[in-house]
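User: I've been trying to design a sequence by hand for this structure and keep getting stuck. Would you show me what you'd pick, starting by listing the structure so we're on the same page?

Assistant: Good idea, let's start from the same input. This is the structure you sent:
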């Protein structure tokens, strides 16, 4: 393993720990309904900002409309098919709700984590300073994402131990994808990178609009709660400007 890959994996531990710590906080600290909604709003804002600051500009730079359309369209179709399939399974099953996994939600969260890891691995190619700042930014995103994911899973009545194990799996996925970004994607053709990022772009937008914000909205939502979405967006936007 080269020194660069070791350095990238070392900094990748920060977002991985953010996922795990966020999950543990949500699992062991009882959050009010409004606080749960605020966490989900904030995470949605951060991820939407990741799309705007990191993913979308890179897709535009690669400038391959056909591949972008293919990757984006295929990703959306896949997400909708998975959601339809899981919803039909939920209506037919009579199993204990605590044993049911929100599969669509977990898949798009997994894609988000995977894309973040790839971005970190590729980001170090621009320089060590940029890579370190990106690791810090992704650490903040991962903390909010861990909180939001655990909160949503607990609302689905999953057992605490199962939620913690799932967050641990997502943290491991981040480390794996960061390693792939640091090795394989450094030398792949730009067409492959364009396709990967286009798939991730659609999945991240789906995660924000169809999962996090859907879970976040509550009756009689106060203005400060809605503002947490924009706070999350602004936070990562400012961090992206620093990077």
């Amino acid at each position: 393993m080269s020194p660069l890959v070791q350095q990238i994996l070392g900094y990748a531990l920060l977002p991985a720990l953010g996922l795990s710590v966020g999950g543990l906080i949500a699992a062991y600290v009882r959050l009010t309904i409004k606080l749960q909604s605020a966490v989900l709003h904030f995470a949605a804002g951060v991820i939407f900002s990741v799309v705007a600051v990191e993913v979308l500009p890179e897709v535009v730079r690669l400038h391959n409309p056909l591949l972008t359309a293919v990757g984006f369209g295929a990703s959306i179709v896949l997400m909708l098919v998975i959601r339809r399939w899981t919803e039909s399974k939920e209506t037919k099953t009579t199993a204990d709700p605590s044993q049911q996994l929100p599969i669509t939600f977990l898949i798009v969260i997994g894609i988000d984590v995977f894309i973040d890891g790839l971005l970190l691995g590729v980001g170090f190619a621009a320089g060590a300073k940029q890579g370190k700042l990106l690791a810090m930014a992704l650490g903040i995103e991962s903390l909010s994402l861990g909180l939001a994911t655990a909160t949503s899973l607990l609302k689905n009545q999953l057992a605490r131990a199962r939620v913690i194990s799932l967050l641990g799996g997502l943290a491991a996925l981040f480390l794996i994808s960061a390693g792939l970004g640091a090795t394989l994607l450094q030398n792949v053709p730009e067409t492959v990178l364009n396709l990967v990022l286009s798939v991730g772009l659609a999945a991240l937008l789906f995660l924000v609009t169809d999962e996090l914000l859907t879970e976040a909205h509550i009756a009689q939502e106060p203005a400060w709660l809605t503002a947490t979405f924009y706070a999350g967006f602004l936070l990562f936007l400012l961090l992206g400007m620093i990077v």
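That's my pick for every position. To get oriented when you compare it with your attempt: The chain has one domain: 3-242. DSSP finds eight helices and no strands in the chain.
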